[in-house]
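User: Fold this, then the next.

Assistant: Folding the first:
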Amino acid sequence: MAAVMNTSPTPVAQDDAVAAVQADPWLIGALRCVGDAVVVVETDARVRYLNPAAEALSGWSLDAAKGRPLAEVMRFEVDPSARPADDERDDAIEHGLVLLGRGGLRTVVDRSAAPVEDELGRRRGAVFVLRDATERLRREASESASRLRGEALSRIGHEMRTPLNAVLGFGQLMQVRACPGRDGGGCYVDHIVDAGRHLLGMVDDLLEGRHDEPGAGLRVQMQPVDAGEAIGAAMTMLQPLAEALGVEQRAELPAQPAHVRADPRRLRQVLLNLGSNAVKYNRPGGRVRWAIDDAGPGPVRLTVHDDGIGMAAFQLDRLFQPFDRLGREASGVAGTGLGLVITKGLVERMGGRLEIDSQVDRGTTVTVLLTRA
């Protein structure tokens, strides 16, 4: 750091500034405790005092630095322009300076300076304060990335909504023309419309743009939901994928409806995410078994079990890390590493809990526990 101090003759002894500091034990104790680096210099711009934080940032000990030029002890990658000691902007903060410490240490800091004067207004020296800006820069980068991500999601959501509305519109026309009597059963067009509405709801969630953590800011409309019907709807939507991959789906549902407290759309999304993983990470000829356990007074347990490749203990430890695909990036299975993160957030948003048990080559069992309605 280059600093040009007022070096005109002065009656003040060069040790006055540090003597003033050391004369007050309360002050010296406070300087030792503060997290910011504090450097005291005399009017000759030589270092007279470093607190422990300044020693850590610069790599210089107080004994080694004392008496050395400030520019030698506090060196910067791009030397900031020096200001005279009587500059009225002495208390201005300079951001993002790269401090070059001893031993090759490089730290981005924010720096401020202020003159030290006696009761007669005579300049005795100056105090420099440096703050490690690493955390500030990390926070600003995170906030910027979050803002850009929100803007991108908003644009994507708007672009997706228009064709989705068209798909739904034409699907509803096909319902009227292709399924007039329903023949006592369902119609495949109904599944198209149903899936389109579900996807449109997810797009609306993107457009809300109010949640940084998956599931944390989503609105939920809690009501009694037939868990068996929810599982049946999820199985229907996943059936084309299951058939394409040679996976069989089976359901073991109670004779009587099991009702849970949930948001119908969020529960469907949870079951689709879990069922999709169970199908995609299965093996040809494998099975996905859906079950409901509503015995006893506790929560209702909705279970999805697959015969797939399973997960090791170290993978289970990383299971809910966003964008972590647990080493399966080259598996050929499409994914982003967000499905289970979102699912966990949605389940917790509905007051439930997610439990996962898995063994390598033996498959995975995921259980959603929800309050009985």
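Now the next one, as you asked:
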Amino acid sequence: YFSSTADTEPALPESLPSDAVDLSNEAKTVYVENIKNTTEITVEKKWKDANNNDVTATKGSTISFDLYQIASTTPPGGGGSGEGETGTTTGVSYVAKCNTSIITGTFSDVAVGDTVKVSVNYTWQASSYRVAPSEWSGVSDGTGEYANNGYTYEYTCKIMSSPISFKTGDREESIQSIHCTLVEAGTSSDPDSSGSGDGEETTDPTPAEPTGTYIDTYTISNTDGWTWSKDDLPLTGTDKDNNTIYYTYYVVEHSGTNYSTSYENNGGISSGTITIKNTESDTPVYELPETGGPGTTLYSAGGLLLMAAAGRLLLHKRKKRRKEDSASS
């Protein structure tokens, strides 16, 4: 469809795609997709005892970590740094069937074989009316829950094919947004493919020497539910020669005492969740005061009491011996 003035002859572009439609003669809905150039990275914290069982962190405790950015001329999923193992093709189309219309789009940073979290954001509190997306296809059986005070429904599943489809459970005007975040990088649906897409937990080693660009230092605490997110990180940029640069991210924790640190999904990701796992050592000592523990105060006080008691007992024995010596003489 085009507009013109009285002195301008309407003209179509010289080259048109094969599926182009002249809307002057045929009515048709045109979808214009705006691809967001920022991404969200979530960091969650898990605490384990020496037997790898989940434990609750000390009340009032906090941990800090550094966020780093890696720049590459190879897009994630294209064999370079970042999500090179997430599948054979980056980008999964979706079809959201509303009661009266259809919403289509593409999740650009995930691939077939990835485990993802699909979030449908409503303009009203969907949980109050028990409205939730249903009839999912193209994905494995997953788990769903309400978030964002009931305004969001999150469905965690594995992408089996593209496109995926689902019913939103309400009209298009009630859907504020639909987005997808990577939970765990996988492989394509080919059963002979190898990788971490089979649901097994993978652990990334602690980075020896941080590389890339330092972004900032952030803090997680139990008051935050041991979860932190940042949703304005750039996905792409350009270098001095105007070449496209793709960004991925990873974290390095400021490790504390008595715990070893490991990571999940921390090999450089463009979106999704990184897990920092602290496992208690086999021979823990006292807990540091800044994490809510008593420190050395009680141990020092106990030692002084024992020394005082021993001195008092020794003095009593000496006095008793002197009295016995005086009596015998």
